[in-house]
Every structure is written in C-alpha cells, then in structure tokens.
Automatic annotation (TrEMBL):
Segments traversing the membrane: 7-24, 30-54, 66-87, 153-172, 178-194, 201-221, 248-265, 386-404, 416-435, 447-464
Keyword Translocase tagged: no
Protein name: Oligosaccharide repeat unit polymerase
Organism (species): Pedobacter rhodius
Keyword Transmembrane helix: yes
Keyword terms, alphabetized: Membrane, Transmembrane, Transmembrane helix
Amino acid sequence: MNQKNKVQTILTFYLPAVLSYLLINSPVISYLVAWSGSLFIFYITWFSPVAYYQKDLPVYQQIMRPLFLTQFIFAGFMCVTSVFYFLDHLGYRYFTEINYGAEFKESEQTALIASCQRLCLLGHAALTTGILLSIKTANIKIKNIQAFKGQDFLVWLGVIVFAIGSICQSIAGFSQIALPLTTVGISCAAVLFVKGITTKNISYIAIGASIFFVNFLHASLSGYKEPIITNVIVLACVFLPYYKKFVLYISIPTAYVLLYFLPTYNNTIRQSWSGEISAEDAQTQALKTISEDANEDIIEQTNWAFLTERLSETNMFTQFIDYVPRHHDYYGWEIVENSIEALVPRVFWSGKPNMESVSMERVYAAGAANPMSPVSAKTRPVVDAYLSWGIPGVFFTMLLYGLLVQSLCNLAESIFGGYELGCVIIFNSIFQGLWRGNNFEFMFNNIFWGFIIMIALNEVLKLLKILRPAY
C-alpha cells in the first residue's frame, strides 16, 4: 500500500466519529453509531482489502504486534465492553428486558454515556492512526541475532532474567524493575512450552509448562482477574501460529468461562486478604461456589455487576465528564507533572508522594469512588487525556500513544533479532501494561523505565554473548 492509500485508510477511521457527533441530539443512536465505529475500525485494519500491516509474516503469525493484540485489548476494553453498561441503562440484563413493558426515557445519563462512547471511539481511531503511521513499510532492520541455534536460548534467557529479577526484587525500590523481567521469563516459558510440543521435545515441554503453570497457579490465588486473563491471552497467542483452528474453536467458550465465573471466583478468593483463611482454602471454597447449581443466581449477579461496572468502567467515565469542566476546570499539565515526578525511583527520593494516592485524588474529587472504600479506581489514558485537555487532548494523546507503542515494538524487534524474541517475548512482557493502559502516573513510568530496562537487557545479553551483531 502506498502512502496515499494509507492516508485514505486512516481518514475512514474517523467517519463513524463524525457521524456520531452529528447525531449528538439523539444519544441512543449516537451511542450505537460510536460503538459500531470501533467494530468498523477493527474490520478496516484486520480484514478489509485496504488493511495495512507488515507483510513479512502472515497475519496469524504476527498477532502479538500492536495493530492486532494491543488494539484488540485496548479498544476492546475501552470501547466494546461498554455495551453491557448501556444495556443495563436501557433496562436490560443479559439481553433480557427487566422492566418489561416500561417505556425507556432518555435522561442526562444517556447523553453522558453517549459522550463517553464518542470520546472512546475518537481515542480508538487516534490510537490506530498512530500505530499505522509507525508501521515500517519495509522489513525492520535487524541489528542483533541469537548467538546460537535451538530453543536452549529461551532456557538461558529465562534463567538470566529470573536471576536479575530476583536480585532486583530483594532491593528496596527496585520492584518496578523486577516485575517486567519476571514477565519476560514467563513469556519465555510459554514460547518454550509450545516449541516443545511442536518439536516433541519432552525437556522443553517440562521446563516451559512447569514455569508457566506455577505462575498461573500463583495468579489464581491472587484474587485479581487481570493476571489470570493475561496468562490465558499469552498462551493463546503463542499457540495460535501452530494450532490456529484449535485456538479459534476454544476461544469463545474460554472467554465465556472467564467472564462468567471469574468475578465470583475472585470475590471468594479475596476472603483470604483479611487473613482469616488461607488463599488455598479460599480457592477450594471458590471452586465449590462456582460448581454448585444452587449458586447460579449469585454468579449471575456478581458477573453482571462486573460486566457493567468494572469491565468497561463507563460509569466512572460519565462521572468525570459530568465533573469536568462543569464543576472543575480542565487539569491542563497538572497530571503530566505528577507523572514526571513518578519517574524518580523512591530509592533516590525518600519523600516521594505515593502515586496511588495522588492519582486517586481526582477520582475522589469527581465522586467516582468513596475515600473510605479500599477499592482502587484509577483512571485510564482516555480519561486522563480528557481531564487534562478535553476532546483535543483525547485525540493527540492517543495518537502519541499509538506512535509510541508501535515504535517501541519496532525497536524491540530490531535489537533483539526479530518478531518472536523482540515482539512476543520482550515487547509484550516489558510493556504489557500498555495493552490496556493505565493512568498517566503509572503509564509514564511503564514507558520510561520499560525503555531503560529493554536497552539494559539488550546490553547484558550482548555482553554475555547471547546476542551478537547481525553482520
């Protein structure tokens, strides 16, 4: 595709957004157009004849690049999942009308929901624009390659990053370095596992499966949903190039099980947080809860609350739009300044503010969470962009987001020797937080220190002669 056609493709992303703003006086229709707009962008970038992506690999072998995986997760959570909250607002539950016969009447909340969806669609279009603008028209220039053949490379890499991560974990103030390195090790294990199956190598299967599933078990005892979902996504993505039909066939039932049972499972696991029972006992109780037919109503109620309140966070977004600028001026550069302060490691600044508390201040101010509640309700990039500079802020922030995400992936592939190591293992481990995004304070931290970690790890691997120049 030439540059002119790429520009024309990008311009089509904004047609649904323009139409949704023209229908602003009909909130329900405006919402539906904006919601459908994200599906339209998915189609244009993935399936249409004008789809623009790197041609060095078939599509199913490069799904962990930002155009596919990051866009799917980021826009999927940000834009598509809002339909559950919208259905709840219309008076439906699981696509079944609750107040049968009662006439739905549009309200101020309906307009706020539509406004949120329009901003999300604009953010989705800008994100995808940034990704497309950063995609290399030619193959990425590889600067380094593996110093030796075979999958033993993954074993050594996993051992090295685990060792460095363990050392960092034991040093106060270095936990933010330990986490991405540990994630690199988990990704190595997942790739080694699938390589072992495809090559029928028992050693690779044993090593990869042991590391990956021990981590999965730990995630299942944490009481958090995201680590479990993330592990499933990673495993599916590394298996897809080799077992495409199998992964596609089980993807829908797996997603159903995760979304339907996981909220209840995790709510039960969290009983262990009080210390009254162990995580293992809580897990046993959780499995019993979701397996008994008598608990079906509890599971449905918990699941619907998760789908409408936590999955898309649309309700919280409407409160921010109602708060700014009606009751509070746009924040301008205030959130960005906080985010720059967050880059300083606490080991060098003992009086550094707690960024969790700093970021929650605007949440409490907007009434999106109760200060007396222990819940963490941090904002997302589109929300912080809107709070800072309004509609233009959403466009330019998400455009820069897309440019950065794809550029970091390009760099990782270049200095780590290609797609598998550079994109699958390094980029999607170190920058995993960018899949869904976070508030500015945590997102800036992930990008800056992730870049430092990636460059440092590359130098260490070259020093140990695990990577060598590609000449």
